[in-house]
Amino acid sequence: MPQFMLLLRGGDAKERTPAEMQRIVEEYIAWARRLAAENRMVGGDELAGGGKVITGAGAALKVKDGPYTETKESVGGYFLIQAQSEAEAVEIAKECPGLARGGTVELRAIVEH
Amino acid sequence: LIEGRPPAVPVLVEDLFRREAGRLVAALVRLFGSARLELAEDVVQETLVKALEIWPHRGVPEHPAAWLRAVARHRALDILRREAIFRGKEGAIESFLTAAAPSLAERSEAAPPVFLDGEIRDDQLRLIFTCCHPALSEESQVALTLKTLCGFGVPEIARALLADEGAVAQRLVRAKRTLREGAFPFVVPEPRELPARLDAVLTVLYLMFNEGYNACDGPDLTRPDLCREAIYLAALVREHPVGSAPRVDALLALFCLQAARLPGRVDANGDLCLLADQNRSRWDRRLIERGLDHLAAAARGDELSAYHLEAGIAACHAVAASDGETDWRAVLASYDALVAMTGSAVAKLNRAVAVARVHGPQAGLAALEAVAEAPALRSYYLLHATRAALQLELGNWRAAADSYAQALPLTRLEPERRFLERKLQEVAREIAGR
Question: What are the Cα distances from residue B19, in Å, to B9, B187, B248?
Fold first, then answer.
């Protein structure tokens, strides 16, 4: 079955109350559980903040912090899912709980050889 | 990494984050000092964010509370280490370390969270006294208690206290500044200052409970979560030797007996249900029992507080099998004593209801009119609603209609508005039918 990577970018950075945070956690867990139960989940993990961007080569090689410092733009985690088609994967991505809080999901198909 | 099968994740306990936030702030304030309440709150926030980042991918740890405590502990240690005061505070950190659950790596095999709950309770008690410090205004005390001990956010506090979010945020900033500048020790007060400090704590809890019992504004008549928190904190105070005063038991008795009736106060449509009309089988028997136990405990010694009298009144209602079987004479006697003790206009108004039940609506109306001019009642919808109900009993439809109409603009609570509108329609039908 075709596989897709969902890159989750963090939503608004406003401070949340503990009750809201619990609700968010529960929404994500419910989503992840459902995907797993439907046998769509291949893998996924959280990504640490920060990271490095490496450019150039030889004398011009540069390592700098990045790629983004804005929470809004940084990839907070990814899910690797399997779906019959891109359309079906899009449907799954639409249910990502982060969308409701200003987050975005970038969907990329894994090329099958 | 989640494998391609459903992870065996337990469902989170309701209010887990809120409750743990309250516990963690208290435990961290012990490490950081009450001057650095903000730092403690930041660490708790970071801890919850960490759970948010990790749990969706790894599943919920077997002992979520222990996990949160372990993460908060690590973070606090980092901070203290970086501040190079590690050596000085080694003892405190050690006890925090042993108190917390095993390390994160071992979390799946972690023993049940035996995080020295007693120690956390002591920390929370210290934090109650810190938040209710006399250097802070009463409003700030309530706001700070809800923020730090109950894990309420600014929007929740604003809703609970009928203030706007900006004002609440400001109030909290100022309160923390006061604590910072005062550098008050994070301790339970000394015996000689304890009675007064304890009274301040009880006042804050009483205000919290009342707001939950009868919200001032909004779509819901009651805010059971506020009542629960007030009971939880009052019980914390009561468990500690410093809180063993009879009036603490009396306050807890009052809370339990009132909270027991919460499920009956609102019907299935969210409409207000008067005491006489409530389905008493919906009352929480367990809470009534607990309340009566506390009331019995409150009777030791010769202390008699307003909480004793209010709890006594609540007990009369809670144990009556029906409205008709209520011991209204006992209720009236308690209100007489309460009025004599406090002189409160609201107590006098409530007494008028008891007078009406014992001596008839005319006598009740006279008792009501005697207090009607009190400034505290001027914009109190219950003055007018009570007068209307008594006029209704006397068959004075027009007077009742006038009073209900006066009551209506004085409440911002939806269920109360709907109740008054229903009453107005009933009265209008009576008048039209005559």
Answer: 20, 21, 22
* Chain-chain contact of B4 with A36 (C-beta, under 8 angstroms): yes
Q: Is the ipTM of this complex over 0.85?
A: no
The CA distance from A62 to A31, in Å, is 39
Tell whether B45 lies on the interface with A, counting CB pairs under 8 A: yes
Can the peptide bond before residue B10 be classed as cis, meaning omega within 30 degrees of 0? no
- Tokens standing for residue B169: 């945020």
User: Across the A/B interface, how many CB contacts are shorter than 8 Å?
Assistant: 91
d(CA B20, CA B151): 8
B271-300 burial by CB neighbour count: b if 16+ within 10 A, else e?
ebbeeeebeeeebbeebbebbbebbebbbe
Query: Could you report the per-residue pLDDT of B33-48, keeping only the tens digit for each?
Result: 888 999 999 999 999 9
At B434, is the secondary structure helix, strand, or coil? coil
What DSSP element (H or E) covers A64? strand A62-65
Q: Out of B17, B45, B49, name the one closest to residue A19 (CB).
A: B17
How far from B368 is each of B172, B316, B324, B403, CA to CA, in Å?
39, 22, 22, 13
Please give the biggest Cα pair distance in chain B.
Answer: 86
**Alpha carbon distances (Å) from B232 to B201, B221, B223, B369:** 13, 21, 15, 39
Nearest to B235 by CA among B205, B265, B273, B260: B205
Return d(Cα B87, Cα B149) in angstroms, integer.
Answer: 29
CA dihedral B209, B214, B219, B224 (to 10 degrees): 40
φ/ψ (deg, to 5) at B21: -60, -45
Closest CA–CA distance from residue B49 to any residue of chain A (Å):
8
Return the bridge partners of A53, or none.
A64
* pLDDT tens-place string over residues B12-25: 887 899 989 999 99
For A2, phi and psi rounded to 5 degrees?
-60, 145
CB-based contacts of B260: which residues, under 8 Å, 6+ apart? Answer: B283, B284, B285, B286, B287, B288, B291, B318
* Helix or strand (DSSP H, E) at B25: helix B16-32
Q: How far is B292 from chain A (nearest CA, A)?
A: 32
Residue B231 confidence (pLDDT) above 60: yes
How far apart are the C-alpha atoms of A75 and A66, rounded to whole Å?
11
Pick from A24, A37, A77: which is nearest to B57 by CB? A77
Inspect the interface and report whether the beta carbons of A19 and B4 lie closer than 8 Å. Answer: no
Angstrom distance (rounded) from CA B195 to CA B3: 58
Q: Which of A45-49, A59-63, B10-14 has the highest mean pLDDT?
A: A59-63
More confident residue, B269 or B357: B357
List of chain A residues whose C-beta atoms are within 8 Å of the C-beta of residue B153:
15-20
Contact A45/B57, CB-based, under 8 Å?
A: yes
What is the distance in angstroms between the CA of the first residue and the CA of the last residue of chain A?
12
Q: How many residues does chain A have?
A: 113
